[in-house]
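Researcher: Before we compare anything, I want clean individual predictions. No alignment, no superposition, just each chain on its own. First chain goes here; please echo the sequence and then give the structure tokens.
Model: Echoing the first chain and its structure:
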Amino acid sequence: MPTQRSDDTGSTGKSARRPARLPEHLEPGGEPVTGDTELDGRLINESPPAPEDERVVTDLGLTASRWSGGRLTGRRFRRLRCVDVVFVNCDLSGVVLEDSGLRRVEFRECRMSGAVLAGARMEDVLLLQCKLDTANLRMIAGNRLELLDSELGRADFREAKLNRTGIHDCDLSEADFSGTDSHGLRLHGSRVHGIKGAGDLRGATIGPDQLVDVSTALFAASGIAVEDRR
């Protein structure tokens, strides 16, 4: 069973993630998700109709909104801006975000396998019980991120900034942390078997139960073999 950590809104302390702030009343929204649009205070259920002539949605802004059950598989967004937004049970598999920013955003029970968030600016973002296997998180600029009880096998964190980030109770098997800025990164409770780039996890904190897997990854990165004497 995953370790319980305060509540789903983050840890306590001055560096705690700030949760999304939504108004009590949200207006139902069902209009197409198109570019050059600002949606504020909306309750979006299922999948709004997609514009047939717009392969890439550019300059979409979402604020103070909740999106439940959306199916956006393989959609591409450029300069998506989300502030105080909660995504619940959405299928975002293969979604591509280009030059996008997320602040006080929560993803809960979302499918995001193969999502491409490379280079995204992410501050105060929660991913809870999400599936992000093989996700591309390369070069994200992250601050106060929380990834809890999620699948991150073979996720690509290369050259990402993971400052004051917690990845807890997640499956990080074969994830790549090469070149990361991991000052303040905490990995307690996560499966770290076969991770790559372990030598670049300077400043990160692990638990005693993770020592063998991380040490093995460090030996492998240094070219040191561990085997019985023959």
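Researcher: Okay. Second chain, same rules.
Model: Second chain and its structure:
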Amino acid sequence: MALSTIPPILNITTPSSPIVDTGAGTTVGALILSLVFLLGFPGNLFIIWSVLARARKHSVTTLLILNLAIADGSLMALTPFFVIYLIMKTWVFGNVMCKLLFYLCLVNMYASIQLIMLMSIYRLVAVLWPRHVTLITGRKTVIWVLAVVWVLVMLASVPAMIFRKVRIQNNSSVCEPVHDDNRDVALQYMLELVFGFLIPYTVIVVSYICILRRLRQTKFRRRIRSEKLILAIVLTFCLFWLPYHLVNMVQVTWALCPKGQVKETLNLIWHKSRAVTSAVAFISSCANPVLYFFAGKSYIRREGLAFMARLFEGTALDSATRKSRQNSQNSREKDKEADAVMLKEKDQDSSSNAKPVNNSK
């Protein structure tokens, strides 16, 4: 396929040189992805093993962390393909793999942020309404919610499979989005921006504002350490994905902007930044094992390889569930004691009232 055979309309929304042909940008991207793979892939596998083989109880938080590790680990498993792509500066895996790999990347990106959002919502309910948290902690309920999340993210990622194609550009094969017009560009990246960043992070920020306010007002202070761990996961994800979504904003603005100097400048910005910001976004998937390691290092001497599982059991807010059950059990015991006292007093009253009757006889 020669460059001249590409329909002219496609050149409207596609830069004149491939994204991987940016010199230092691709070199930095390849280095980042290599380090991310070496650290993140075995780290997430260890988390999955810890939950499945070492965790004594699969709580809601543990199941969410397991699914998050599966999403991150799957993303890490794809990084060697992109390292080769950045080093060779040409796509050698064919059109089907071009569509499939970028589709799976988007699926795991969506899944990660949606799972973190669910984690925040669950902790919000557990802190603000601990007596009602048992209503959403049933195993079937959690599995159904997780299944719905995975189905939704798979559907939301379909545009990546539709628009990605292998094309010949500057005598090299590139795997890039190919759009018929600028509206398709805006649609694809606005979907990523809204569903993958704005909505979940709005929910997360509101949830944690409410959680932290409640923690300062109540006796939940002893769980502030676990809140800090989950908050660190949220902030880390935001830190590494924010540049990627900023580039999405730039590309959407470029697509909707009329022709002129501004449009050319925006085109240059997103084109030069895409490879690096995408590589930086991958770091978030290897950051969680590092956070878990530092959070659970106090368990290492006592628990050995099971330290990660004990950390998850310790940070799970099922302690709130246990507390609510304890409170309800204590209240039932107090009610029983109160009933027993009332019955005893009633018996005493009836016996004392019965004595005059016997004397009269």
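Researcher: What stands out in the second chain?
Model: Residues 320-361 form one domain. Additionally, The chain has two domains: 3-316, 320-361.
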